[in-house]
Amino acid sequence: MGNLRSIVVGMVMAVAVSQLFSCTPKNTKQVEAPALDTLAEVKVPVLKYGLPVDSFALEMGIVKNNQYLSQILNARGVGMGTIDKIARKSKDVFDVRKIKSGENFCIFSTLDSVPVAKYFVYENSAVDYTIFELTDTLGIYQGKKEVQTRLRTAKGEVETSLWNAMVDNGQDPMLALELSDIFAWTIDFFAIQKGDRFRVIYDEQFVDSTSIGIGEIYAVQFDHYGDENYAFLFDQDERFDYFDDQGKSLRKAFLKAPLKFSRISSRFSNSRMHPVLRIRRPHRGVDYAAPRGTPVMSIGDGTVITKAYQKGGGGNYLKIKHNSVYTTTYMHLSGYAKGISTGSRVKQGQIIGYVGSTGIATGPHLDFRVAKNGSLVDPLKVKAPPVEPVKEENMERYMALKDSMMLELQKIQWVPLPELARLN
């Protein structure tokens, strides 16, 4: 690809130069081409955060614990009056109170004998940054670093865990979490065994030549208990999702809500005033107000892993494990459905209990919670992926993509465990 691009660029440049020096109108003095050494003297400015590096003295730093913007700037000669104006003016762009310890910053100062700070740049993340102009205009604006993607392949065989298999093969271990999400409904990643193996085609993202993580994953083969499991990224109905080698979706949808409710009485929050305790604390779920006895349903297939009573909080509650990624919790139940116990298998839409007000509650409601990879997430923001297969009108296009990706996967040669041990 790189050689082809060089050839095309070379041809275009040749045509352009030919036209420039051979198509001069008659009776017009020939203009000589500039000497190569003259062209070499033309310098392209080096930019960082969109600012010319050569025009300033740069000071890179890291925000310390309990360090504020005022402390950083005041130590560089910026007056408190200016800092106050910056803080007030920046609220609509970036709240300076959100500056966190451990993040990078850069100060651009003049090249004078007594440097004067002109710009303060705070890196919100590996990609995003905010520029504060320390001039009369006091402008504040945000930018993004250029993200480059490189096509990668990965392969490995499990010795102890998928995470360790990634590390042993010199790959980003976060790739293990990505694969567990893709195959969440088809492979139990808590049951990965020695000899399971994988090969993957994916993008790795870079900023300033530093890897910042995994991009798109295009194709995967994961052999588990001797069965070949495939995943191919395909766009259908203006969205991308993963399908197997037969064109079936790898995902199953959750119900949008676990019951028929009258209203949402409380949403997911990191700081909610508790209606009974009258103190602020996180509420990592959604409260559905409904009459006592309203049936509560499991939002998806799964296994009941907890059936218990929590006196100081959730009262009667159930926890259901749906796969290696998602678990759901149903709290304040007045009672459980017949046959529901720890270890019970449940189906999507199956009644598992009834709305109540057990535990600490002001009235009958369901406190519903969703955990993804062990961390609680907002149930209202969990995307319910499609379950329909590749449509008939898209099947020809999908099979062509699948066949080409299968060929590319087969080019990634397995490394047997004994040979891998010798390499390490």
Structural class: alpha+beta
Q: Roughly what percent helix?
A: 10-25%
- Tell me the CATH architecture of the largest domain: Distorted Sandwich
Strand content: 35-45%
CATH topology of the largest domain: Glucose Permease (Domain IIA)
How widely separated are the two ends? 33 Å
* 3D shape: globular
- Largest sheet descriptor: 10 strands, antiparallel
Q: Give the CATH H-level superfamily of the largest domain.
A: Glucose Permease (Domain IIA)
What is the CATH first-level class name of the largest domain? Mainly Beta
Number of strands: 24
Report the mean per-residue pLDDT as an integer. 84
How many independent structural domains? 3
- In the predicted model, the low-confidence regions spanning at least 5 consecutive residues are 1-31, 417-424
Q: Rg, please?
A: 30 Å
Tally of DSSP helical segments: 8
Descriptive overview:
It is a single chain. The chain is of the alpha+beta class. It is built from 8 helices and 24 strands. It has 3 domains: 47-144, Nuclear Transport Factor 2, Chain: A; 148-252 and 413-423, Nuclear Transport Factor 2, Chain: A (Roll); 263-381, Glucose Permease (Domain IIA) (Distorted Sandwich). It has helices spanning 2-22, 36-40, 69-74, 80-89, 162-168, 174-182, 392-410, 417-423, and strands at 47-48, 51-52, 57-62, 104-109, 117-123, 128-133, 140-144, 148-157, 197-207, 210-224, 227-236, 239-243, 263-266, 269-273, 280-283, 286-289, 295-297, 302-310, 315-321, 326-336, 345-346, 351-355, 365-372, 375-377. The strands form 5 sheets. Strands 13, 16, 17, 18, 19, 20, 21, 22, 23 and 24 form a 10-stranded antiparallel sheet that branches. Strand 23 (365-372) and strand 24 (375-377) form a beta hairpin.
